[in-house]
Design a protein that fits this description.
The protein is α/β, with parallel strands linked by helices. It has 10 helices and 5 strands.
Length: about 210
Amino acid sequence: MSNFVITIGREFESLGKNVGLELAERLGIKCYDKELLSRAAKESGLCEEIFHSQDEKPTSSFLYSLVMDTYSATGYTAAPFLDMPLNHKIFLAQFDTIKKLAQEESCVIVGRCADYALSEFPRTINTFIHADLDFRIRNAMKEFDVSESKAKDMISRKDKQRSSYYNYYSNKKWGSSKSYDLTLNSARLGVEGCVEMILRYKEIMKY
């Protein structure tokens, strides 16, 4: 298979989505972020609004282990899946959609534990975009038109949410260099610099 997938984990307001969009444009492929939710909703038969409300929300790791054992033996249509907590259904639907996308096309996927979902897919580049706090605060203040203190609170809350979600659903640690092929500081490299580093890595790997 010639398909490859670039996954992007990201700190809030580190411009990880911008890196994903620029990468996709440079490579002539699609970038999936919120778009992934629409497809997962359609394929699972669940309401799309629910996907957005539950997007990247943390859950209980113990309950998740029980859910995965049940799901692996039953799938979407069996009663055990229908009885699962909503956030588990959402995760599993996205999990399946990510794996299907990798089989169908080369693409960039932002967030949603895509690196974990594709742990057995050989042609992946797993990246994490981070940035200095001051840089992210300025970005949040500009994007959301909020005060510095409000921006800092937003960043803290979203980072904790993403970290909890990732750590529960994967066997890795969110933001740790050991969890990714590349970790890049967008405050120092800029969006273009991050894109160039990922493209160089792709060239070295011959994907």
